[in-house]
From TrEMBL:
All residue ranges annotated as the VWFA domain in the record: 27-206
Gene source species: Gelatiniphilus marinus
Name assigned to this protein: VWA domain-containing protein
InterPro entries associated with the record: VWF_A, vWFA_dom_sf
Length: 467
């Protein structure tokens, strides 16, 4: 028994150790901007105050087993390009150590981005550690060096890291070198104009780490030829399971997708007049995929037919989530429907006809920006003429028609006693039907008959009942 207990304990310990090794994430290193410009204000608060609040929230949301390091620059001396310091080691597992260190940082000096990145990356090389580096800066390089060159060379040298950069309150023309560096570092550049943007950027950066598989599918969103900031969600086709997601930040967003088909749901985060869209995409093994999503409109030319001739029908254009975004009545002619680019289902319903095939859904219609797609559906019908007589006298009767196999009621009417309605015309989908005829007038009380008819496409079948 003692041996068994020891064995169980040993196996349990081995499993826990293995589980911890499997789940322990690679460390995250924050590089914090403590240059003098951090005293500048946004929305009534200094950027230093905003950064502290947002960074504290982001750090506190990290897993308990996440190791977190901190580097700062410009916090001790004015005008010193070498004022860069590791404040918290990468082996640190205490969130409090990070938040306390940040709260004690003063903002004084310059912005040595290239030197800071080089110091951080070299520390990883020397310790043989892979990590996610997140650089938060409110300014561009103010010392010698090019951070993009530093990062590119480090990647060429095989150093294992992912670099995200969050630009806080930067002007549009100041971001090119930062975007280049983030891209070279396998990460993203996040543009933050306020506290909310900074929080969103840090949330995504801390959740997109060096441990994640590299992106194999890129997305770029535009409107009128200009890039659009958009949120992208990837859902496995036919399910509600979200596989991955990204934000484009008016640039290219990346996701990692196993081979297969997916619904890509894209919602713009600016210009609220632009509606979101869903597009079906496919990830192919060992291939890098890409989709440019243009929010310029595309057109559907819809034609509905019956027995190969123009036929009146109603239509609904639906997103993959079932939202109706367009539609029309065709009147037997081609109707043009303009919608955002995306993948749609078009539900058409033929008018006047009865049966089990009066509705049809044209699935997975792909609409592309600036293009017109031709779409049509051809319904099928035949005619059943049902009349009731007594001798040569027309008899008023109720006619009820069921589709025989399913037992579903599909049509019904009265014959009355007019040559215009007796026999009564029924336009039906091809099939076999059970017809019940029941007299209405007292002189024919109790008179009824049930029979079966077959309706064929493009043909007329006539049945006259005699009481």
């Amino acid at each position: 028994m003692k041996l068994l207990t020891t064995l169980v304990c040993t196996l349990s310990l081995m499993f826990q150790t293995f589980s911890q090794e499997q789940k322990t994430p690679s460390p995250i290193l924050f590089i914090y901007d403590a240059s003098g410009s951090m005293w500048g204000k946004l929305d009534g608060k200094t950027k230093k105050e905003i950064a502290l609040e947002v960074l504290t929230t982001s750090v506190n949301n990290l897993p308990d087993n996440q190791n977190i390091g901190l580097m700062a620059y410009g916090h001790r001396k004015k005008g010193d390009c070498n004022d860069i310091e590791f404040l918290v080691d990468l082996k640190n597992a205490s969130k409090t150590h990070i938040t306390k260190a940040v709260s004690n940082i003063n903002a004084l000096g310059k912005t040595p981005l290239a030197r800071s990145a080089a110091l951080a990356i070299n520390s990883l090389k020397e310790s043989k550690t892979k990590a996610t580096i997140i650089l938060i800066t409110d300014g561009i390089e103010s010392c010698d060096g090019n951070i993009c060159d530093i990062v590119s060379k480090a990647k060429t040298d095989g150093i294992d890291f992912k670099l995200h950069i969050v630009g806080f309150g930067l002007e549009e023309g100041e971001t090119e070198q930062l975007k280049c560096a983030a891209n070279a570092g396998g990460g993203k550049y996040y543009d933050a104009a306020n506290a909310s943007d900074l929080g969103k950027g840090l949330t995504e950066a801390t959740n997109t780490t060096v441990d994640d598989p590299p992106g194999n599918f890129s997305i770029y969103a535009t409107k009128n030829g200009e890039p659009v900031d958009a949120w992208v969600r990837i859902v496995k086709t036919g399910t509600n399971k979200e596989i991955d997601g990204t934000r484009t930040y008016r640039d290219t967003g990346w996701v990692h997708l196993p081979p297969g088909k997916y619904n890509m749901i894209v919602n713009p985060l600016e210009n609220t007049k632009i509606n979101g869209t869903t597009i079906i995409i496919e990830s192919i093994k060992d291939k890098i995929g890409h989709k440019t999503v243009s929010f310029d409109g595309g057109k559907i030319n819809l034609l509905t037919l019956n027995n190969n001739e123009g036929w009146d029908a109603t239509s609904k254009v639906k997103t993959q989530e079932g939202k109706v975004v367009g539609g029309s009545r065709t009147y037997g002619r081609t109707q043009t429907i303009e919608v955002n680019p995306g993948t749609y289902d078009i539900e058409v319903m033929g008018l006047r006809m009865k049966g089990l095939e009066t509705k049809y859904t044209i699935e997975d219609v792909i609409v592309e920006s600036g293009k017109t797609i031709e779409v049509s559906h051809n319904f099928k019908t035949g005619i059943a003429m049902i009349g009731v007589k007594s001798g040569e006298t027309l008899v008023d009767a109720v006619v009820s028609i069921k589709e025989k196999k399913s037992g579903k009621n599909v049509a019904g009417s009265r014959t009355y006693t007019s040559n215009n309605s007796n026999p009564r015309e029924f336009l039906l989908n091809p099939g076999i039907y059970e017809v019940k005829v029941s007299a209405v007038k007292k002189e024919y009380a109790g008179k009824k008959e049930t029979f079966t008819i077959q309706v064929k496409q493009g043909e007329t079948v006539t049945k006259i009942i005699r009481f």
